[in-house]
Design goal:
Length: 654
């Protein structure tokens, strides 16, 4: 029976209200199939049969219930109890379901904690296995500090490089950051120690090591390293020069020159051995690159040190009373020694010594200072005695060292001669050629002052003079022009040889005379006294002869012999004590005794005479030679002439 037939049968049997679950009941479906197979007769009795079976079943059920009612009661109680237990179980299951997420969370937390404990256990095991290596790493700061303090800089640089690599590999490890920080502190200490070594007395090999360490530290760029080296060495040089005693300016200057010559030359040698002269690139604000020459940095530093030395030189020269020629020789040797490194600064020494020499000369020939002494000397003039004197108006042009002795009878002339000779004596051992015009001008001004004082003396006293005294005054003026002035001209020519000036300047003797170079203007000096000077053989001719003789002597090479004598003196001056000196093929032994100036002293006020100082050869003291650095006589002459010749063009313009 198909489903449609079954539904039709159900509707016929049950009408519009069939059972709800008849389709799911297999027995119901089976019974419908059987009904479909029954015939009409059977269908007629089927209700009675069903009723009879139902009553039988009910009767059996009642009997079963009566006979087994206890079982049914127990079953009912069990069912109720089972329902209660099932409800309780359902409640527990619901609680379990609600608690399950928390439980799962706790399980995950436990799992994570267990994993962390396991990881820590693994790390602890690994740490234990690497204990020795870890201990070495932890001791790196202490080891670094020890090697730095013991100045084992190679090991310190290796440790620093190792720690830097470790931190680069593990930048997030805090303990490595602490180790690296402590190692950097030790590196700073090492840097201070290296710079302190540069500020001490170290030689070139040690300098090379220190600069090598500084380069490996990579703290400074190349140009910064050069500057730091110069600053450190300059600090040490200042400490050495400041340690020189300042009580005596002469000793302070000589020792300062010696110290700076030796140590500054060492610094220059060290710098040139360590650093090259390559150019470097400098970044500018405009994002451009500028090529800079490293030589400019060193040259400017060395120039500044030379300027500092020149300031010390000029300051001490103004205060010293020692030998200028000795200081000039030492200073020139100082400048000459730097020619080996291309920094010969001898030319800039010349103006300094020129100023000092001229200052001393001007001090000795100061008109205001000597005015009173010159005025007092005229009080000792005895014109009557002078008028009765008989003497020649010519001078010995071959022997300049002996002043005319007749000047003793002319106190003002003797006094002026004495003062000028004293100034020339101080000048002659250190007479720069460039100062010849200033020296000549100063002497001429001093002599012009004598002329003014003579005219003033005449204007004041001539009204009271008799003819004899007037004749004595005229003879005074004649001696002044014919004896004193030619003799002083010879003395100036002995200090500044006209022939030598002509050779180095290219000017003739006449040009030198016209420019007042080593020649005083006799006509200008005596212009106010010409009215008192006779022209009939009383000295004018002799004066001209002396003047001309001086010219002839210069032209014939008389001054050349004097230069040769001077070179011999220089050889003796620079030779070490006790050594033999060879001059013109002859061997001489230097002597420590100085030929002192010969002085003839006469009481000016009482005996109408003054002191006349003759020009004498005076041997200069030998400068102390340190180690093997004694300059030869030839080098001294070359140094002096080179330095003085540099300013010739400047002085020719005057």
């Amino acid at each position: 029976m198909d489903t449609q037939d079954a539904e039709e049968v159900v509707r016929l049997v049950f009408g519009d209200h069939p059972p709800d679950d008849w389709r799911e009941n297999p027995e119901f479906m089976q019974y419908l199939s059987e009904l479909g197979n029954l015939g009409a007769d059977r269908l007629t009795v089927e209700p009675d049969t069903v009723t009879h079976q139902l009553a039988s079943v009910q009767s059996s059920t009642q009997e079963l219930a009566f006979s087994n009612y206890k079982t049914f009661i127990q079953t009912s109680n069990c069912s109720a109890e089972i329902c209660s237990e099932l409800a309780h179980t359902e409640q527990h299951l619901e609680n379990l379901t609600n608690s399950m997420p928390v439980f799962l969370q706790k399980c995950e937390q436990f799992k994570a904690e267990a994993a962390e404990i396991s990881r820590h256990r693994a790390l602890t095991s690994l740490t234990l296995s690497k204990h020795t290596m870890l201990l070495e790493i932890l001791e790196l700061p202490q080891l670094m500090d020890t090697v730095v303090r013991n100045q084992h800089y190679d090991e310190a640089l290796e440790l620093h490089s190792y720690v830097t690599k470790l931190l680069r590999k593990q930048p997030d490890v805090n303990i490595l950051q602490d180790i690296c920080r402590n190692v950097k502190n030790s590196v700073k200490l090492m840097l201070q120690q290296l710079l302190a070594q540069l500020r001490s007395s170290i030689q070139l090999p040690q300098c090379l090591k220190v600069i090598s360490y500084l380069r490996r530290l990579e703290v400074f760029k190349e140009n910064e390293l050069r500057l730091k080296f110069l600053q450190a060495r300059e600090t040490w040089l200042h400490s050495v020069t400041n340690a020189v005693p300042r009580d005596d300016p002469y000793i302070h200057l000589t020792r300062t020159m010696e110290v700076m010559r030796v140590h500054l030359y060492d610094i220059v040698t060290q710098y040139r051995a360590i650093f090259s002269d390559d150019t470097f690139t400098l970044d500018t604000q405009e994002s451009d690159t500028l090529q800079c020459d490293n030589r400019l940095l060193f040259s400017s530093w060395l120039s500044r040190k030379i300027e500092e030395f020149l300031k010390i030189l000029e300051t001490d020269l103004h205060q010293t009373t020692g030998s200028i020629e000795t200081l000039l020789g030492q200073a020139m040797y100082f400048g000459l020694s730097f020619s080996r490194v291309g920094f010969d600064f001898r030319p800039i020494l010349v103006p300094v010594f020129e100023r000092i020499i001229m200052k001393q000369l001007n001090k000795q020939l100061n008109i205001e200072v000597n005015a009173k002494g010159l005025s007092d000397s005229f009080l000792a003039v005895n014109l009557t005695k002078i008028a009765s004197l008989k003497h020649s108006f010519s001078i010995n042009q071959d022997d300049v060292s002996q002043p005319p002795m007749l000047l003793l009878d002319y106190p003002p002339l003797a006094l002026v001669c004495n003062q000028i000779l004293s100034a020339l004596n101080n000048l002659r051992l250190c007479a720069p050629v460039s100062c010849v015009q200033q020296v000549t001008k100063t002497v001429q001004q001093f002599l012009s002052n004598l002329t003014d004082q003579t005219v003033k003396y005449y204007n004041t006293n001539h009204t009271t003079w008799n003819d004899t005294q007037m004749e004595g005054f005229k003879k005074f003026c004649s001696v002044y022009k014919s004896i004193l002035l030619p003799y002083l001209q010879l003395c100036i020519s002995a200090v500044f040889s006209p022939k030598h000036l002509s050779e180095i300047s290219g000017l003739s003797i006449a040009d030198l005379r016209a420019k007042s170079l080593s020649f005083i203007d006799v006509a200008a000096i005596c212009s106010d006294l010409n009215q008192f000077i006779s022209t009939e053989g009383d000295g004018t001719t002799d004066c001209a002869k002396a003047d001309g003789g001086d010219k002839e002597k210069d032209e014939e090479g008389g001054s050349t012999d004097y230069v040769a004598e001077r070179m011999a003196e220089l050889v003796i001056a620079v030779q070490s004590p006790g050594e033999n000196v060879t001059v013109n093929g002859e061997t001489e032994k230097p002597t420590n005794n100085s030929t002192e100036n010969t002085t003839a002293t006469v009481n000016t006020a009482a005996t109408d005479s003054v002191t006349v100082t003759e020009i004498a050869t005076e041997e200069s003291t030998t400068p102390a030679a340190t180690e093997s650095e004694t300059v030869t006589a030839t080098e001294t002459v070359i140094a002096t002439e080179s330095a003085t010749a540099i300013v010739e063009d400047k002085n020719d313009g005057h």
